[in-house]
Structures are given as C-alpha cells and as structure tokens.
Here is the input.
Amino acid sequence: MEALLELLHGDKNEGRFTLAEPHPKKTTNRDRVVCVKSLLNNRLLQAGYKAPQYKLKALRNQTFQAMVTVKGKQFKGKVASTKRQAENNAAADALEWLDGLTIAAQEKKDAKKAAKEAVREAAREAAREAGRAGNKGASGCVV
Here is the structure.
C-alpha cells in the first residue's frame, strides 16, 4: 500500500502515460531494410494475382540462387550468400519487369487519352469553322 501511495504522490506525469524518451527514435533511410519480396507480394495481391512462388537452388561455396514465378514468367536472381538475399534478388528482377509493364501500360493509356483529345479538338475546330462559314452573308462578310 505504501508503494502505491508513493507512486501516486511522486507521479510527475499526473497519471498520464509518457515515453521514457522525449521523442521516439527517428530512423533514416540507411537504417531501413527494404524487403523486395514483400513489395512484389503486395503489388501482385493488390492486382488480384496469386502470390509469387520461389524455388531455391544451393550452389557451390555455400551460395544460393532463387527463381521466382510471377504471372507464369520465371525470373532468376543473382547469386547470393544467403537464401533470403537470393530470394530478394529474384524478386527485384520480377518487380523491375512488373514495373516496366505498369509503365508501358500507363504510357499506352496516356497515348490513347491524347489521341482521343486530339480527335475532340479537331471536331471542335471543324465545328467552329462550320459556324463561321454559316454566319457569312453573300458578300463573304460576317453578318
């Protein structure tokens, strides 16, 4: 009971929860490890595809090479000293390919949009010309 009273009376925070440090420790980009496997997995699942399948191959000198299958296409990663890094290398290749498809699809979409806009602008210009021609009298002057 005395310990409880001592805690209550000696509580400088008035019962509020506070962190031991004034601010949480900030991380820098250098401190973060990017897991390419997670990025690839998330991108595929968001697009409605199955999670990628990895196959590992143990090579000489205790090195590994991974192969990942994405949308029916297989990618071999660079040789690495750990299984995890080998899978990340394969995922990086697959993600690069997938990003290339995404960029190409976006460029195609943008080109279609630009073509439609050009057709609309040509139709507007033709309508303006037709309107100008319709407003001219017999003398060729605008009425």
Summary: The mean pLDDT is 76. The helical segments are 2-9, 36-46, 83-134.
